[in-house]
Amino acid sequence: MSFAAVTVEIAQGFPKAKTESLKAHPLAKKIERDWQDELRAIVAPSALTPFLLSSSAGIGAWNAAPWLAIFHPDVTRSAKAGFYPVYLFEPGFKTVCLVMGQGAASLEEAVGKKAALVELARRAELLRNHATGWADMGFSAGRFDTLRKAAVASTPDAGRDPWSIAVAFGKRYEIDGMHTDQELSSDLVGMLNIYADLVRKGGLEFAQQDDDLLGLKQTGELPKGTVDGAKQVLEHKRFETRKRNSKLIADVKKNLGYACSACEFKFGDMYGRSMAQYIEAHHLVPISTVADEGVELSPTGEHFAVLCSNCHRAIHAAGCPSLPTFKKALQRKLKFEPT
Question: pTM, whole model, 2 decimals?
Answer without folding.
Answer: 0.72
